[in-house]
Write a structure and sequence with these properties.
Mean pLDDT: 81
CATH class of the largest domain: Mainly Alpha
Strand order of the largest sheet: 1-5-6-4-3-2
Helix content: 25-40%
Low-confidence stretches: 328-355
Radius of gyration: 21 Å
CATH architecture of the largest domain: Orthogonal Bundle
Length: 355
């Protein structure tokens, strides 16, 4: 009991110090009484996550918000600090806006803009997209928006922000289905001049975590881990399913990225809902970009700036990536072979992980 009280006090002191340093930023500070009033005493629950529960709220007759009430018993206050510290610095059309926060005693909450079309996850996996609700053109627009949002985090802020949890669940959609990156609870900030941080523990969601984040042999993790996660997200958007799906009829299709690479490499049909050549071109482009992003070695993955260029460019300008599932294969182009980069000097400059 005494130990729990001491832990709570340490968390409170840590957050208090952070908030004193944070006074110059824009988001409003609310009391817990404000939060209860805005949510109508937590009447409308939108969702539940590992670190808290999200409720719909109303700031005025015209302004709706989504409020995440954080669990007091989870984490050490770092998730709150990450969210407020990261999102308070961000002003981009493809990143969710932090309206305000609450740090009232042991009660903590985060107030975001309300996005009515919920998450990309629901859009991708609804009925395995038998009845596609969005066109391939709109899906491409969504991928470009997400890519631009991540590029901004990596290059457009005063400090580089590594998200570490890019996945469909954390991409929210506004009334026009414009995508916005959310949930910065695992984010880390580092200088733009330094490319990587040393990880003490893996962070992220299985299925989207880059190999270097999971492997003790890599240890040093760069912004390229977000590129990998984006690639996995992109391939799920194309396939309309989880990348790993044991319910498919053919065992070759269990792992969609490998199946997609094999089909592209052999010039075979994709077997997904496509109605004309234009849609085929979009699907193929998204697959190729996704496969570039999930290359095993971080140095072989493009930066998000290049990813945006690839997504906005023509399919004919793209080359087939190396096979991410057989690292000895050389990359292929339309009729030519490019020497693969040697597996040396792959280490990136490192800075210590800041707690």
């Amino acid at each position: 009991m005494y130990a729990d009280l001491q832990t709570k006090r340490r968390k409170k002191v840590k957050i208090k110090k952070f908030l004193e340093d944070y006074k110059g930023f824009k988001p409003s500070r609310y009391s817990y009484a404000d939060i209860k009033r805005i949510t109508n005493h937590f009447k409308d629950k939108l969702g539940q996550g590992g670190y808290g529960t999200v409720f719909k709220g109303r700031l005025s007759s015209d302004v709706l918000v989504a409020i995440k009430v954080l669990n007091n018993f989870k984490g050490n206050g770092e998730e709150f600090i990450n969210e407020v510290g990261s999102m308070g610095r961000i002003h981009h059309v493809n990143v969710t806006r932090l309206v305000g926060f609450c740090a009232d005693g042991y009660d903590r909450a985060l107030v975001y803009e309300y996005l009515p079309n919920e998450s990309l996850e629901k859009l991708i996996f609804a009925a395995k997209r038998k009845d596609r609700s969005l066109s391939w053109e709109k899906l491409q627009d969504i991928t470009v928006g997400v890519a631009k949002g991540i590029e901004y985090l990596h290059q457009g802020c005063e400090q580089r922000i590594l998200h570490f949890d890019i996945k469909p669940h954390n991409i929210l959609l506004d009334h026009n289905f414009n995508p916005k990156i959310s949930d910065f609870g695992l984010a880390k900030l580092c200088s733009k001049e330094q490319s990587a941080i040393s990880m003490t523990t893996a962070r992220g969601t299985m299925g989207y975590i880059a190999p270097e984040v999971l492997s003790r042999n890599f240890r040093n993790v760069s912004y390229k881990s977000d590129v990998y996660s984006f690639g996995m997200l992109l391939l799920e958007m194309v396939g309309g399913r989880k990348n790993i799906d044991v319910t498919v009829e053919n065992t070759s299709q269990v792992y969609f990225p490998e199946w997609a690479y094999d089909r592209l490499d052999k010039g075979e049909e994709f077997g997904i809902r496509i109605e004309d050549d234009a849609q085929t071109g979009i699907a193929k482009k998204l697959m190729i970009v996704g496969l570039w992003c999930i290359q095993w070695y971080p140095v072989d993955r493009p930066s998000m700036k290049v990813v945006v260029q690839m997504l906005e460019g023509e399919l004919g300008a793209l080359t087939m990536p190396p096979n991410p599932f057989a690292s000895t294969d050389p990359p292929k182009t339309m009729g030519a072979t490019i020497p693969r980069k040697p597996a040396v000097n792959r280490d990136l400059p490192t800075i210590s992980e800041m707690e």
